[in-house]
């Protein structure tokens, strides 16, 4: 779901093309990412609203237990997806706050530049690729 939304946004907001010698996370770059994040937030909010209305419209009581179970399963899946979207909206708000504080684009762990290409792929990224890789390795080791 998130990938489809990002692809849609990339059509509306082509990736930022830095000019030669341009300073990292200058006002133009921050403005670009703010617009991307705000558009993403609007799209996610509209998805959540559509789901709520669809669930209200589709509220049917099935006599058949199998149909009821299938409907409940579909609703549970839809609610989990919407919960993920609500969490992403919260993360978008936190990211916009980082832009406002001039902290956007820098790794929370080590402080290095995250990089424009990584931010285009994942505008809410807070870790550089090296720190994120280490983080994922630690998670896998703990899960074993």
Question: What's the structural blueprint in terms of helices and strands?
Answer:
Layout: H1 2-12, H2 27-57, H3 65-100, H4 116-121, H5 129-143
In short:
Helices cover 69% and strands 0% of the residues. Helix 1 (2-12) crosses helix 2 and helix 2 packs antiparallel against helix 3.
Attribute tags:
about 140 residues, mainly alpha, 5 helices, about 70% helix, globular
Structural features, described:
With 144 residues, the chain is mainly α. The model has no long low-confidence stretch (mean pLDDT 86). The longest helix has 36 residues, at 65-100. The protein is globular and about 65 Å long. The chain has helices spanning 2-12, 27-57, 65-100, 116-121, 129-143. 69% of the residues lie in helices and 0% in strands.
Q: Spell the H/E element sequence.
A: HHHHH
Shape: globular
Report the count of strand segments: 0
Query: Mean of the pLDDT scores?
Result: 86
Low-confidence stretches: none
Number of helices: 5
The proportion of strand residues reads under 5%
Summarize the biggest pleated sheet: none
Assembly context of the chains? single chain
What structural class should be given to the helix and strand makeup?
A: mainly alpha
- Mind telling me the C-alpha Rg? 19 Å
